[in-house]
Structures
1.
Amino acid sequence: QVHLVESGGGLVQSGGSLRLSCAASGRTFDRSNMGWFRQAPGKEREFVAHISWSGINTYYADSLKGRFTISRDNAKNTVSLQMNNLKPEDTAVYYCAALGLGGIYDDVDDYDYWGQGTQVTVSL
């Protein structure tokens, strides 16, 4: 099992930056492919970014490429999401999650473990 706790959310002005962190506990974190998702009010949860267990492979939602960067530190059991040039439409609750075995990286239903989420609000 993997237990996940997100942090780093908050209120930021448009054009600003935030760095989200996800602290993981569990024996299998360093072999877990990890993802970030977000959910805005009234909308479905959507894929943001994914990183393989080794950190070698990363994937992003097309609309976020160039602004968001996912990374991980297996020695510290953390996954991070650096978000730059934030826009009001980035306002959402952000979740980190661990992908199930054989799952598809951008399919929300293929992730087995989720954190509680952290709120990101971007003002004009």
2.
Amino acid sequence: QVQLEESGGGSVQAGGSLTLSCVVSGDTARYFSMGWFRQAPGKEREVVASIDSDGTTRYTDSVKGRFTISKKDNAQKSSYLQMNSLIPQDTAMYYCAAGEGFTVVAPNFEYNYWGQGTQVTVSS
């Protein structure tokens, strides 16, 4: 059974930085793609960034140039979201997600595994 556990959330002032971590446990497929989502109160969940099995990254427009997603494919897979120049609009619960597949843009790709979330709060 695959499980994801996030860490690294917290409270920062605008302009600050945080790094979120996501550790994957369990038996994962050879091709494993991951993503970070966020959901603010009263808003729908949105994808923030994703990274394919080959390292290809994608970002939502609002975080381009400020956030960086990365991953490690050691014996234990993990993903990281480096968040710089944080603004109050980045305040949300952040979730790590993963799915078995070469790329998140494949028609049949699904995020099958989700973490519990970690809160990020940015004050002005």
3.
Amino acid sequence: QVQLVESGGGLVQAGGSLRLSCVASGRTFSSYGMGWFRQAQGKEREFVAAITWSGGSTNYADSVKGRFTISRDNAKNSVYLQMNSLKPEDTAVYYCARARNIYVPTSQLGYDYWGQGTQVTVSS
């Protein structure tokens, strides 16, 4: 069983930064792509960013391109989301997820394990 635990959420003013972390259990972390999704209150969960198993390729939602950076450290079974220039519309619960294989789809259907989420609130 794989467990994903996110941390690093909080309250920040618009224009500020936060760094989210996600630690995964299990010995095969490096064999899978990883992604970040978010869900704002009253809205559907949406794709934010993803990274391949090696970290060699990344993908971002248009809404966060140039502001967010996803990275991973396979030695630490961890994936990160550096969020800069935060906007009030970035307010949401952020989830990390493990892809079903080495690829990094933007659809939630491509992920099989999810963390419990961490709240990010950006004040104006």
